[in-house]
Amino acid sequence: MIKENSPILTCITDIYERYHHINEGNVATYIPELAKANPNLFGICITTPDGQIYQVGESEHSFTIQSISKPFVYGLALADHGVDKIMSKVGVEPTGEAFNSIVFDEENNRPYNPMVNAGAIATTALIKGKGYEQRFNRILTMFERFAGRSLSVDESVFESEKSTGHRNRAIAYLELNAGMLEGNLDEHLDLYFRQCSILVTAKDLAVMAATLANNGINPITQQQAVDPKEVRAILSVMASCGMYDFSGEWLYRIGLPAKSGVGGGIIAVLPGQFGIGTFSPPLDARGNSVRGIKVCEELSQRFKFHLFDSHPVSQTCVSRSYTGAMVSSKRQRRIFQRDFLDKEGDKILVYELKGDLYFATLEKLTRQLQSNQKQAQFIILDGRRVGNVNSSAITLLSEIKQWGLSQEIILILTGFEQKTQNRLQDNGWTDEMFMENIDAALEWCENSLLSRANYDDKILKDQLALEEMDIFKAFTQEEMTVIAPLFTEFSYQPNDFIIREGEQADRLFLLAKGRATVSLKLSQNEQRKRLTSYIPGIAFGELALFDLNLSQRTADIIADTEVICYVLKFDNLKTLLTKHPEVYIKLMQTFGTTLVNTIKRATLEIRSLSV
Questions:
Q1: Catalytic annotation on 262?
Q2: Which residue in the list 16, 74, 244, 358 is annotated as catalytic?
């Protein structure tokens, strides 16, 4: 079920509104029943290879399929006879003429292609079956496999076509005279008129087109509607001949295999990505739906769709996802901040992306964003493992950004290549929407949540007293009187080493003022990786309390600002154990509980990141 605020739906709704009120073109009149069509009807539908449907307007209004039947019947004829037999009867060359022109490939004694009337009549004549009813039932059943539902015939349109189809009869008799047709001519013509009178909707057309995009598998029913080798042939003739004497310009400008019908429908396909179905009765001079052409052209321009920039059937581009409650930034927090972020962290969503980004992969992402957003206020998209980002992905990322703004969600990108950032900035993205990595983005989102709740670091005092440290939250004044003499106050300037990697681990630190960072030196050129950051109220170095061998420190801790620490040498604990064993036990239990909670949180993060 598509939500109303879907970026894809918003996009096609915008296109619908843009062209709904144009009054160019005229409904078909050469078939009397078609002249009765309401010119104001207009529907658009897009269907993906995994069955997602986006539709707007009169997308479920029924109309006759007309010439859009031609590529599908051509596929059935190929299945019946094979390529060689069909090629001997019907060519694949564009004519450059109107759909009902009386022109033939005289050198090969065949119609030029199956998309014009002459070729379509010859193709229908090749459909196997014992008599008219069985042959038509095969055609109708084939269409139902493509549409994924039962279909019917508009009998009034059929009778109207049959009684006025003199030009098509003339074409058929010329083909019979030249030996292009064999068998019962009236039966062939009735089959042709009847296949054109099958009722469909724009939604049906989109599903049929998506079936072609999905290697012949109907995305709704998962039924194989046509063999993949026929799909290639169908799409080939649609690309070269599907829009009649507009086909060359269509392929050049829009780049999608397509087919139009005088009933007002158009289908278009981008293999592996989607199928489009449109319906609007007013036609241009070539017999193509005016609004339908504008829709396809607009979509192609917005998302840079083109046949020669296609992809295989898409998979998800999300390698893993998690929330800010499951994985936090490397910045340490006070207990009250940590408790708040544990409760509110679900408002931060992180999606780590992978592979190439194009329309179909990002379309799946938009669905995940919508289904998972709930109370989300921040969405982080990480592109460290992303390969190529094509033009349609750039456009859709911007659509996602606009959707986020409409939902009061801040979108942040991390890890994307600079060239991708530059292209997005050309589309209106600002510098603050990009961050170096997920950790920086998580920290920024956490800070924003804390600030909104007045829990940010600004409320911290210039220097915390010893008793205000998180570790002493449960200690009485009497117990603090015993503990305080064990600590010594030390000051550090920015960039001073508080702890050096390799030195003896014989004391713990309580940060009273300023900020400090734990980092590892990665190479000889002084490059460092941040492991975590500390703010006032946080203890560090306490793990050594439980190391009887007093091992060496494994990382550097460096002052980011002016820092004041309360430092406890472990030797001082011997006096506490002797004189106040109950306070010593409580202190050790408190530090032990802190470490257990840290390990639990690390385990949760590891589990979340392993999915």
A1: yes
A2: 244
Name the architecture of domain 7-309: 3-Layer(aba) Sandwich (3.40)
Residue percentage of the chain with pLDDT more than 90: 66
- Select 318-457's CATH number: 1.10.540.10, 3.30.750.24, 3.30.420.40, 3.30.565.10: 3.30.750.24
Which of the 8 DSSP states describes residue 226?
Answer: S
* Arithmetic mean of pLDDT, 504-508: 89
Q: Is 321 a catalytic residue?
A: no
466-610 topology per CATH: Jelly Rolls (2.60.120)
- Integer Cα distance of 350 and 358 in angstroms: 20
Catalytic (active site) residue 132: no
C-alpha 225/C-alpha 223 separation (Å) is 6
Q: Kindly tell me if the per-residue pLDDT of 417 is higher than 90.
A: yes
Q: Where are the domains of the chain?
A: 7-309, 318-457, 466-610
How far apart CA 446 and CA 340 sit, in angstroms, is 10
Report the predicted TM-score, pTM, of the whole model to 2 decimal places: 0.76
Which of the four pLDDT bands, split at 50, 70 and 90, describes residue 108?
Answer: confident
Marked catalytic residue, from 56, 237, 262, 482: 262
512-559 pLDDT, tens per residue?
999 999 988 776 666 778 888 999 999 998 877 776 665 788 889 999
Q: What strands, in cross-sheet order, belong to the sheet with 410-414?
A: 318-323, 348-357, 378-389, 410-414, 434-435
Residues 6 or more apart in contact with residue 257 via CB below 8 angstroms = 212, 235, 236, 238, 239, 242, 268, 269, 271, 307
Catalytic residue list contains 192: yes
Catalytic residue among 6, 70, 314, 583: 70
